[in-house]
Amino acid sequence: MGIFDYQDSTTEKIGTVESVDTANIIIKIDNEELLKKMQVNHLIVVQSSKVGKHLIALVNKIMRNSSIEAMDTDNQPLYKIENVVKATLIGTHVDKEGTKTNIFKRTLESVPEINSDCYMLEGERLTSFMKAISQLAIDAKNPLTLGNYTLDEKAEAWLDGNKFFQRHAVIVGSTGSGKSWTVAKLLEQVADLPSANAILFDIHGEYAPLKEKGFKHYKIAGPNDKATENIIFLPYWLLTYNEMISLMLDRSDNNAPNQAMAFSNAVIEQKQIELESLNKPDILANFTIDSPIPYKLNSLLDKLKELDEERDFSGSKTGRDGPLAKKLTRFIQRLESKIQDKRLNFLFNSSPEVLAYDYVETICKKLMHSNSLKKDEGVKIIDFSEVPSDVLPLMVSLVARLLFSIQQWIPKEDIHPLALFCDEAHLYLPSNTNSSVEAAGLENFERIAKEGRKYGIGLIVISQRPAEVNRTILSQSNNFIAMRLTNAEDQAVIKRLLPDSLGNFSELLPILDVGEALVVGDASLLPSRIKIKEPRLKPNSATIDFWDEWQKESTKDVISTAIEALRKQSK
């Protein structure tokens, strides 16, 4: 017998199908006692025309209609009360198929006939059905769990781990909704896998407590950091031509075209000199301005100064200015001021280790080696907290672009997949770019969102402000974990991204409890409301309890220490 063999239809039946419109149905309710138990987003079983199959529907709306049926003897209207439920068909349950039983499919193998019987899905039947959903992910041998279904707290909610990372994902929620816990819950499961490979861009250092087996922490160099095992530099010579220009060129300058041309020529020349000194004839014959080849910035500056001060004495005793004389002055000044900015130590550090030809290999092996190649380093957490906000978009995208470029050059049969967790994504994947730095950074991520899955790179976009995240990147994501969102603009963005067939499912966004999420997408067979389980390791969400702190009898005077830390740019 199947789980939906309803024996006593008089007590278990809630009503019959009154109208069918593609995936939407209207049910006329006969059993008012069962109606009292029904809520929006509960599940309903609808009788199918095929034996052993039932359709599953999600309740969208519960209504009570009244209409004048007749007039009484005093000419007063007699009202007819009718209870109606609107629901969306979301899939088909099959009692048995081949050797398997209790199967759920997201396809509609038939549509219900008018007057088909409808039943509530609750109690043991609900538990059995939820197990059918979860069993599919478990059978596929790639189960990923976040917690338990709100509908049935005894049933664990399993997702398809392959589809979750293959088809990109979005995790959103207002501050304090439990977003960081959700990310930690995902990461700890990834870290347990023998060949795990994931990178988290930690913008505020809140994931520092995740120090269990399988996690490795790196930090983008601060003003006073030197090249060590856990410190990563992102040297200027890794920047592409467009990235360099966005960072160093003022496009409003009248001489900007001349400056860009002189700079690109000088970069090519310096890279050529470096390759000749290293005796790399094969690379020398094929390199481009974007090739990751180190060069000395001081030598490049000397070349630009020479062009800026050049005098042409041919045909004149007094001489005249060279073609670029006095046109590069402001560009040189801007470049020199950036080199001297200690906050950009990670970018313009000129130590031999950072200028080494194989430093790019050092970075990439740290970040791209899986758990099986570098034991207990399956999840790499990169702390960007000391990177200035004005260059943050470019620096995060530089790391992502570098990893993506290398994946492209790995033979298809040797590609090992890599997931990028983009925390606080609205800070570097903005919906509207206000500078060339933001635009250059965004371009790299847009390409990864569109093409990444072909090269084994999955994006997980994490943000508390989805309305401020780039629409192209969001639209390329097929999985959504949406926690409580209180801002109307943020709610509207997520509602537009969710399938229309889910009806009012997204209306739950502002009323979700802390730690509750709506999970929708290819990885989840059933659009679900899930209570997220507490992770083993909890991120430092930096939430300060104001009232509790204000009630303390004494506090420490730390202002002087903080000012000194600010002055020397080091805590």
Structure description:
- The chain is an alpha/beta fold and 571 residues long.
- 32% of the residues lie in helices and 24% in strands.
- It has 18 helices and 21 strands.
- It has helices spanning 9-12, 32-35, 123-139, 161-166, 179-191, 241-248, 256-278, 281-284, 297-308, 329-340, 345-348, 359-368, 392-409, 436-451, 471-475, 488-497, 546-550, 559-568; strands spanning 13-21, 24-29, 43-47, 53-71, 77-97, 100-105, 117-120, 143-149, 156-160, 169-172, 198-202, 215-220, 231-232, 311-312, 320-321, 379-383, 418-422, 457-463, 479-482, 516-521, 528-532.
- A twelve-stranded mixed sheet has the order 9-8-21-20-19-10-18-17-11-16-12-13.
- The N and C termini lie far apart (67 Å).
- The relative contact order is 0.14.
Topology of this protein?
Blueprint: H1 9-12, E1 13-21, E2 24-29, H2 32-35, E3 43-47, E4 53-71, E5 77-97, E6 100-105, E7 117-120, H3 123-139, E8 143-149, E9 156-160, H4 161-166, E10 169-172, H5 179-191, E11 198-202, E12 215-220, E13 231-232, H6 241-248, H7 256-278, H8 281-284, H9 297-308, E14 311-312, E15 320-321, H10 329-340, H11 345-348, H12 359-368, E16 379-383, H13 392-409, E17 418-422, H14 436-451, E18 457-463, H15 471-475, E19 479-482, H16 488-497, E20 516-521, E21 528-532, H17 546-550, H18 559-568
Parallel strand pairs: 10-18, 10-19, 11-16, 11-17, 12-13, 12-16, 17-18
Antiparallel strand pairs: 1-2, 1-7, 2-5, 3-4, 3-7, 4-5, 5-6, 8-9, 8-21, 14-15, 19-20, 20-21
